[in-house]
């Protein structure tokens, strides 16, 4: 009697045959983490978008999902430190390492240096993954490198590979806290610190970028209250009257979030939208505009506020896919107060001086959200900011042109980088005679310590928020 080959189908009670459930991949958490890291490297994928999709599509849940999340974000946050250490453990330059192998080495280094996974388990599991994704020969190379990494802890390695703090403070912080040097220097300048002055507050900010951010929720005005979120396990927030903190768990598990009455939104992002809505305007207050609305967080909040005042919000977004996200964010707002259009706000589809309030949240380097998008620090360069500056200036000019006399504009960036914040606003103010600055902190009394002259600047290490910048300007 000969053995029959195993059928790829299994029988049901009624004799029907259907495909058998495929076996669960070995070590799904590390495989997901590797695939996301590889995609970030090779096709500029965003981890915060790709990782949840990968976990969902592969059915990875529970402890495996938590491990995949820690390995992905932890590796991206500490990538600069790990690369300096790995470079000391590779016989040749780290730049010569295969692009398929480098994410494995970083993944292994993170397990060895920043988790409680036993060293032998970290090396063994990573090498086993390497055999499956890059082959036996390169797995041996990964094994040799990771065993060298395992002989010291993180502090011992950093003492070896980081420049001396006494002679190169910025370079030292760049390696120890895993940021490109130019970002360290840019953040120090935004904080008013000099590289030769110790950079104490800059170091606190860099450390905050490597901490896991808390989840902040927004109760959409007119559709939910903070009490609804608190009743589901959230805690009242420190600043925004519409915010709540979720200590743990999946936000989608909360009923108000599932129903679209609440959403995830950073607290500083809520506050800059609130400040725009709070500035007094004389005359009509019926037409509001969000010029760069995607993905829709601020538009969702403004739509609720506008609806409560019988005003109407027009939300414009250049990219159709992001416009779809905006439409979801404002759906079923109070009085259906929002409309979404796909439009290029540098060439407005509306007439000039048509709006009473205008929000322009310009495209920027995103240096204020490095806690949530750690890979952004490795993609941005000083040239990125230079290339964005003309667009940022043009958008602010168009925002002012779109605002009636006596109306107000909120210029917002999720970056504290001076050339993107006060540099843009001051340049535009110097080019126009119809603009007056409004002291933004007067309309954000919840956070008086965020005042920066006429402007407002939030910080992760001071406020626990993204580093959001706000300037309020009146058309006069």
TrEMBL record:
State the source organism's domain of life: Bacteria
Keywords, alphabetical:
Methyltransferase, RNA-binding, S-adenosyl-L-methionine, Transferase
One of the entry's Gene Ontology molecular-function terms is: methyltransferase activity
Q: Which EC number(s) does UniProt give?
A: 2.1.1.-
InterPro entries linked to this entry: MeTrfase_RsmB-F_NOP2_cat (IPR049560), MeTrfase_RsmB-F_NOP2_dom (IPR001678), NusB-like_sf (IPR035926), NusB_RsmB_TIM44 (IPR006027), RCMT (IPR023267), RsmB/NOL1/NOP2-like_CS (IPR018314), SAM-dependent_MTases_sf (IPR029063)
Residue ranges for the region (Disordered) are 1-29
Q: Which Gene3D superfamilies match?
A: NusB-like, Vaccinia Virus protein VP39
Residue limits of the SAM-dependent MTase RsmB/NOP-type domain? 191-476
S-adenosyl-L-methionine as a keyword of this entry, yes or no, is: yes
One GO term (biological process): methylation
Q: Where is the active site?
A: 414
* Amino-acid positions noted as binding S-adenosyl-L-methionine in the UniProt annotation, renumbered to this chain: 292-298, 317, 344, 361
PANTHER family listed in its UniProt record: NOP2 YEAST -RELATED NOL1/NOP2/FMU SUN DOMAIN-CONTAINING, RIBOSOMAL RNA SMALL SUBUNIT METHYLTRANSFERASE B-RELATED
Q: Which protein family is named in the record?
A: Belongs to the class I-like SAM-binding methyltransferase superfamily. RsmB/NOP family.
Q: What is this protein called?
A: RsmB/NOP family class I SAM-dependent RNA methyltransferase
Source organism of this protein record: Marinactinospora rubrisoli
Q: What is the lineage of its organism?
A: Bacteria, Bacillati, Actinomycetota, Actinomycetes, Streptosporangiales
